[in-house]
Amino acid sequence: MPTPATGQSFLSTRRGKLTLALVCLAGFLDFIDTTIVNVALPSIREQLGVPVGSLQWIISGYLLTYGGFLLFGGRAADLFGRRRMLIAGTALFGLSSLAGGLAASAAMLIGARLAQGLGAAMMTPAALSTLTTSFAEGSDRVKAIGAWSGTIPLASAIGVLAGGLLSQGPGWRWVFFVNLPVCAVVLAGALRLLPGQRHRAPRKDFDLVGAILPTAGALVLVYTLVKAPDIGWPSWSPRLPRGSGGARTPCSRCRSSRSPASGRPTPPR
Question: Would residue 79 count as lying in a domain?
Fold first, then answer.
């Protein structure tokens, strides 16, 4: 956003550059964990004795909660503030990374990955919303979104490399421990750089059922996609999960199309 005194773009200021670096780092942390654990799976299986059938949930558990709770994380950021949700999500991500690194069983590790995905689902919408509201429409926002978009393939590539180096070096547990200093930097940056959000969505308008429906539908759909390679796609097996997810989508649209005050459908905008 332009500075009031000089009309200078926010991105050209030191604070603007640090803000962009902060949100990209938060996104990088979320994206890298989709790949960094893959290379460490053989070491995890050997040390923890994880059954082959459970190995996929070390990967898929993260994707399940990450993809399933993204909509809920975005709505929570509207209600409670972007800064607060970014801090809460990063704290959860860091604690679950610590739990994953200290895991003594497959169940504990999978639980940590599920919690990691939930933390990432809180972080990503808050970080992206901070980016789009901090930088004015035009050149600043285009550059900021370009930098954010570049973190996705970069994180995926670095995740595979870092996972191999860490699992062959200090050990697979460092695939999780390496997140802790990054989480500390994101937390410190959010507290120092991001202002508190004064104008948030009124909590009295929060529609619990309307929030649960799309989240449940997303979870069912992601779960179906995760399990499909394992069990195949016979004509009957995906019908229930896909039907359930599809049924929740029109229901959630119906809920969201009603005015919180009157309960009457609102015209499309």
Answer: yes
Q: How many domains does the chain have?
A: 2
Q: Per the domain annotation, does 1 fall within a domain?
A: no
Task: Report helix, strand and coil shares of the chain as percent, to nearest 5.
Answer: 75, 0, 25
Query: Same domain, yes or no, for 142 and 65?
Result: yes
Give the integer Cα–Cα distance in Å for 101 and 171.
10
User: Would you place residue 268 in the very low, low, confident or very high pLDDT band (cuts 50, 70, 90)?
Assistant: very low
Print the domain residue range for 262: 207-269
Cα 10–Cα 179–Cα 122 angle in degrees, nearest 5: 60
Specify the pLDDT at position 2: 46
Looking at the domain assignment, is residue 246 inside a domain?
yes
| Rounded distance between C-alpha atoms, residue 39 and residue 168, angstroms | 10
pLDDT tens across 9-27, in order?
888 888 999 999 999 999 9
Strand runs (DSSP E) across the chain, as ranges?
Answer: none
Choice between 261 and 129, residue whose per-residue pLDDT is larger: 129
Helix (H) or strand (E) holding 189: helix 179-193
Residue 4 falls within a domain, yes or no? no
* pTM for this predicted structure: 0.78
